[in-house]
Specification:
Length: 114
């Protein structure tokens, strides 16, 4: 079996919080993902961010869109950096009945399938 590159291992160590409840309703307010990521923006690797770090999302918790649905990508490294912040994000999803999906690795185009 082929070894995974370091970048692919890192990508697979994430999960998504979808802006859909367990019964498929869209979560409101519409800017929930940006708000959540804004709250988490101070959690970042040591020495990263620079002068304008307060204006950037954390690399551990960042907003995205999946199939037209707002979502947040959470890197599991956040748990090592700050366990309370990690549990805050998970509890936000659970308290609001949001869907959580583990990230998976898809083969690169043209890459042989195992």
């Amino acid at each position: 079996m082929a070894e995974l590159s370091e970048s692919k291992k890192k990508l697979a160590d994430e999960f998504f919080i979808l802006g859909l409840t367990s019964n498929g309703r869209q979560f409101r307010p519409s800017d929930w993902a940006e708000r959540l990521c804004g709250v988490m923006s101070c959690f970042r690797p040591e020495g990263s961010g620079g002068r304008n770090a307060h204006l950037q999302f954390s690399p551990y918790v960042r907003p995205t869109m999946l199939d037209g649905v707002k979502a947040v990508v959470v890197n599991n490294d956040l748990q090592k950096l700050e366990p309370l912040a990690y549990h805050f994000v998970l509890n936000f999803a659970k308290d609001n009945d949001l869907q959580i999906i583990d990230a998976c690795i898809l083969p690169e185009p043209g890459e042989p399938k195992n």
